[in-house]
Amino acid sequence: MGKRVIIFSSILFSVIFLFSINFGEASAQGDENKAFEGLEGIDQAYRENCVIATASYGSPMAKEVQMLREIRDNQLLQTQSGSAFMSGFNTVYYSFAPTIAQWEQENPAFKEIVKTTITPLITSLSLLNHVSMDSEAEVLGYGISLILFNFGMYFAIPATVVWQIKKRI
């Protein structure tokens, strides 16, 4: 069972991270609405709340969900590169997030798997609360660093462990 959870977690986050690298086309104004372009068919409540985290933590007011919104609104959307990232991320994320959130509501075990899987990601993103992200260079630097860190945590390390185990068998 443990291996299946790790494999599922890796697949889930490979989809999120690999597609979120598509930065999209947001303008330099830092307009919050630019991050939601192309998502007109999606309910406003979904666009404003991190639906997977909200379903995992049980409330849009959970501290983890509030932190994600604050980073998005107060830091990322204040720069061109952050707005562009959010635009690309939202295009991909909201193509599957409502379905994942619905599955979480229907299956408590799945909800716990997702919560366990996203908690390290949310914890790593909390580092952004302790740095200055006032310029494009800082947003890009910290953003790319966090993407690489999470890629290593969710993919490189598990792949290395699996490879080493297979090598010994």
SSE string, helix = H, strand = E? HHHHHHH
Radius of gyration: 16 Å
Question: Number of helical segments?
Answer: 7
What portion of the residues fall into strands of 2 or more residues? under 5%
Structural class: mainly alpha
Q: In whole angstroms, how far apart are the ends?
A: 19 Å
Main sheet record:
none
Uncertain stretches of 5 or more adjacent residues: 12-43
In terms of quaternary structure, the protein is single chain
Helix content range of the residues, please?
A: over 70%
The tally of beta strands, per DSSP, is 0
Dominant shape: globular
State the main characteristics:
mainly alpha; 7 helices; 0% strand
Describe this structure in words.
Residues 12-43 have low confidence and may be disordered. This protein has 169 residues and is mainly α. Helix 1 (2-20) runs antiparallel to helix 7, helix 3 (51-57) packs across helix 5 and helix 5 packs antiparallel against helix 6. It has 7 helices and no strands. The chain has one domain. The chain has helices at 2-20, 44-48, 51-57, 63-74, 80-106, 108-125, 136-168. The two termini are 19 Å apart.
